[in-house]
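Lecture 7 notes: from sequence to structure.

We start with a single chain of 447 residues. Read the sequence below before looking at the structure.
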Amino acid sequence: MKGFRILFFIEFLLIATSVGAQKVYTLKDCIEKGLESNYSIRIIRNEQQISANDATLGNAGALPMIDLSSGFSGSSTQNRDRLTNGTTEKASGVNSETADVGLNLNWTVFDGFGIQATYDKLKELQRKGELNTRLTIEDFVADLSSEYYNLIRQKIRLHNLRSTLRLSRERLRIVEERYNIGAGSRLELQQAQVDFNADSSDVINQLAVVHTSRIRMNQLMALDNVEENIQFSDTLISPNPFLDEVDLWKKTQENNVSLLLSRKEEQLSELDYKKAKSRNYPTVKLSGGYGFTNNWYEIGNYDWQQRLGLNYGVTIGFNLFDGFNRRREQRNARIQIKNQELRRQEMELGIRADMSNLWMAYQNNLNLWSLEKENLVAAQENFSIAIDRYKLGDLSGIELREAQNSLLEAEERQSIAEYSTKICEISLLQLSGQILDFLNPADPSPE
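Now the structure, written as tokens:
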């Protein structure tokens, strides 16, 4: 009866893992919770806000700089003056003081379109920040969706192993009854016990796998309690068999974030070239100021002096020769534009290759899924016949075990085919920029 005590312990663990949940989550719920709480998402959104804050005319240098300054200074001296008639005049503790306040303006009104190029680059960097946020979100949704379906798959496997364990328990019960009445052998009883223990071990190990996947889901959603026992509304994996390769590739060219980022790098390189060309033009700067100064004297013809007034000016500058650095920078900028174009073309080729490989894997897994569903039906019928024959004593324990293993293997292969197809579907949607459709799932059947 030791085996049954082990079984009761396993059943207790199974019950413990299925109670205590406070909410039933759909995939959409998990994604929304993760987008709200996940630390990586929150960090990338803060970085996007920084790039948005930087995209201003002031940061590009298009606005004037206005400074307000004030000061006070003084001196205390001893004077000794020799006059032309030979006499000497002395004065000690001569104080003089000066106070001033002024408002100064400096403004670069033209620098060969460099300011405009800088501002345009800051705006493009802001858009790049938005794309980086989108890329992080899409990667997150793909990771979370994959783990969501992995957890479902592991729970399905746990269910299958649990069913196998129950069958082994029934077999052990039958063998024990036969042995007790002298109709069975000790060897058959021991073999049934060994198989039961092996199935018990598989269930215990699978509990650990389910636990690890559940913790990973909680971590992705950034739950306060990482060990919270959440429950999912989905208990089966349902791949979408109606994806279209032509439509996927069209949307990939339009929406793939990596491609959009590569094109953005091209635009930034063109703006760097525009900035380098701005050095071919003169610069025009305006300056102005308004100030007040007051001086106090203890000697001389004045007790104090006050000055209040406006000053202004314009400066035009042009670099005549800088050691051919302008030419070098512009040549390098043109090369960078070409390099970014080559990188984009290389990325397009790589993405096309990834699309082709994923599409082939998707089609193969769909075929395997269909085949394994048929195999599972056959394995279930085979086991049903085997268990009936075993109860009648017309089948050995070893043959029953083979039928039992065949059923478990068929269930496992179907589960793997379903999961693999779903992972290919997720990867294809991510590649084509449609992964956020999981937030608004639609009917997968064709129109």
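Residues 443-447 have pLDDT under 50 and may be disordered. Keep this in mind for problem set 3.
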